[in-house]
Amino acid sequence: MAKLKLDLHDIYNRGDQIDKELNRVIQEAIEKRITLVEIIPGKGSGQLKKKVLRFLNQSHIRKLYHRVEKDDKNFGRIFIHFRH
């Protein structure tokens, strides 16, 4: 199974760049028909994870993927599942 990975540690404090990278990785998954994207916002205070989840919950983004899974073993990791 092919998987894309996006680590947000380097750009955690740049909101516009975070949205750009999230859009990019979702579009790449759709174009390459990748079924799983792993996003790593990190553990920290949880604010970056909340920002990512709010981004993914927008209606125009939500219709692009199948489901979001929060890793129960690692708080700082989110999986986005796609159906193609």
Give structural notes.
The chain is of the alpha+beta class and 84 residues long. The protein has three helices and four strands, in the order βαβααββ. A four-stranded mixed sheet has the order 1-2-4-3, covered by helices on one side. A hairpin with a 7-residue loop joins strand 3 and strand 4 (78-81). The radius of gyration is 12 Å and the shape is globular. 15% of the residues are buried.
List keywords for this structure.
84 residues, Ribosomal Protein S8, Chain: A, domain 1, four-stranded mixed sheet
**Overall SS class:** alpha+beta
Kindly give the count of domains: 1
Low-confidence stretches: none
Principal-axes shape call: globular
CATH class: Alpha Beta
What's the pLDDT, averaged over the residues? 93
CATH topology: Ribosomal Protein S8, Chain: A, domain 1
The total count of strands amounts to 4
What's the number of helices?
A: 3
Strand order of the largest sheet: 1-2-4-3
Strand content: 15-25%
Query: What's the alpha carbon Rg, rounded to whole Å?
Result: 12 Å
Largest sheet composition: 4 strands, mixed
CATH architecture: 2-Layer Sandwich
Terminus-to-terminus distance = 13 Å
Helix fraction, binned, reads: 25-40%
Element string (H = helix, E = strand): EHEHHEE
